[in-house]
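Form P-L/3: holo structure prediction, ligand S-adenosylmethionine.
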Amino acid sequence: MRDNSDSFEASRLGRKDHWDSVYDRELSNFAETGDIGEVWFGEDVAHKMVRWVVDNIDTGARILDVGCGNGHLLLELANEEYTQLVGTDYSAQAVELAKQVAQSQGFGVEFVEQDFLSPMDVARVAGAERFDVVLDKGTYDAICLKPTDADAVQVDQGAVHIYPVSVVNSLKDSGVFLITSCNWTEDELVARFADHLECIGRVKHRSFKFGGAVGQTVATVAFRKKQPDSKQ
Ligand SMILES: C[S@@+](CC[C@H](N)C(=O)[O-])C[C@H]1O[C@@H](n2cnc3c(N)ncnc32)[C@H](O)[C@@H]1O
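OUTPUT (holo model):
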């Protein structure tokens, strides 16, 4: 829940044990019914991210989806002829679900375990080559709800600050970061990543009007990694 200091109280959505149990359940559902589970923010939002990638990024690009969950976003990109796709999640159950879903659809996408807040994990997955594109749909939102301790209500601000560094360290020079959030507005995302990334585009979503103000239920912003000498 948001307060006036532009922050949230920590929640179970920021805890790994929560996601492990979610994906345990979704793995069982997938085995029993073939349902791939929740597509975070819905198909329409995923579709708009895919459209932005198709319109702006070559199909040969090396693309990382951070906190990929069931891998749906990457499978949509595989369907658009993208071939160098890597999905990561810190939940082993999510990675297993994504592998099973990809296999059932005949796509050879790579899925690996990675804690995006661990510099060692980030370096291991990025390798020397790094990525042309990093995608995030809902993962930064979850990280911004990570508690300092298991039952704490305070958000782990260390995690919030490590995240942009992990994005930058995953990207090649001039690499692109595309993020969708339901907790932060477009302007808040631009401000939060301003030290390392410059905004190069915004994706329009369905809007609502409340008390005379127009807002969007989710925000999607595209960034390019700043060159060291362009850092302000
Ligand atoms: C809101 S869900 C979004 C899942 C997926 N991106 C989607 O759009 O359906 C957040 C995801 O982030 C993952 N996650 C949270 N913290 C993470 C971390 N530190 N490293 C890697 N994955 C993380 C969770 O396991 C979960 O799959």
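COMMENT: The helical segments are 16-33, 43-56, 72-78, 92-105, 119-126, 139-143, 157-170, 186-192.
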